[in-house]
Design a protein that fits this description.
The protein is mostly helical. It has a single domain, classed as MetI-like fold (Orthogonal Bundle), CATH 1.10.3720. Helices cover about 85% and strands about 0% of the residues. It is built from ten helices and no strands. Helix 3 packs antiparallel against helix 4. The chain is globular, with a radius of gyration of 22 Å. The two termini are about 20 Å apart.
Length: about 250
């Protein structure tokens, strides 16, 4: 392990110790009867993992999340690339994505229930309506920010438009496209949890709601902490994938 990697690992470890230490102190003070300490939350998380309730919850939560993120990635990247390459598509669809990104889209999730019920389709749509706009807008910006000098060089070597798109524009935009995918995954986690809290009590949202209703706050906080940890891990893995695919970026 290099000195830089070791130093970074040390600082990351110190930040976790600081945050968890302050959490433990705040829970033992306590700042609120409903705020458990870190040790109580960790113990509750262990119990939930041991009795299988956490695994069953994630088996239900991850299905609409994975489907929704896959659909959002395909539609969002496709729409962003199309807007970046075609002025007509940009004029037609860009205002819609700008509004969707700026508007509080989470507010329409309860409305999805009235149209699609409380099944898998509603939860997939809840993920998609939050994830697609950020993926599309970042993909669009990546295409639009392609260096003009690179395009001029491609034309100077008699490159066709197809070659310019595949060999210049898309590789240049890959960094922002991956940023959009990471943000889309983050928004997808928000969407699926909101859906499980507001649409149908299943998965990790059901654990949060149930343990809150019976005042089992350590398990409620454990469920919340677990979804944060899973989301952070997913984003970290996407970042590692991006660095592996594009080491020079």
């Amino acid at each position: 392990m290099s000195d830089g990697t070791a130093r970074r690992a040390l600082w990351v470890g110190a930040s976790f110790v600081l945050v968890f230490g302050m959490w433990e102190w705040a829970g033992r003070w306590p700042i609120s009867p409903a705020f458990p300490s870190f040790s109580q939350t960790a113990l509750a998380l262990g119990h939930m993992a041991a009795d299988g309730s956490l695994v069953r919850a994630y088996a239900s939560t991850l299905q609409p999340l994975v489907i929704g993120v896959a659909i959002s990635a395909a539609l969002g990247v496709g729409a962003g690339v199309a807007m970046g390459l075609s002025r007509s598509v940009e004029w037609l669809t860009l205002p819609l994505f700008v509004i969707a990104q700026a508007a509080p889209m989470a507010a329409i999730i309860p409305m999805i229930t009235y149209v699609y019920g409380i099944g898998l389709t509603a939860k997939v749509l809840a993920v998609s309506v939050l994830a697609i706009p950020v993926i599309a807008m970042n993909s669009y910006k990546g295409i639009r920010n392609t260096s003009p000098s690179l395009l001029e060089m491609c034309r100077a070597f008699l490159g066709t438009r197809r070659q310019a798109v595949w060999k210049v524009v898309l590789p240049h935009a890959a960094g922002l496209i991956f940023v959009g995918l990471r943000l889309g995954v983050a928004m997808g986690f928000i969407g699926v949890v909101i859906a499980e809290l507001l649409i149908t009590p299943t998965g990790i949202g059901d654990l949060i709601t149930y343990h809150s209703s019976v005042a089992d706050y350590p398990k409620m906080f454990a469920a919340v902490a677990s979804i944060v940890a899973v989301a952070a891990t997913a984003l970290y893995l996407l970042e590692r994938l991006e660095r592996k695919l594009f080491p020079g970026d």
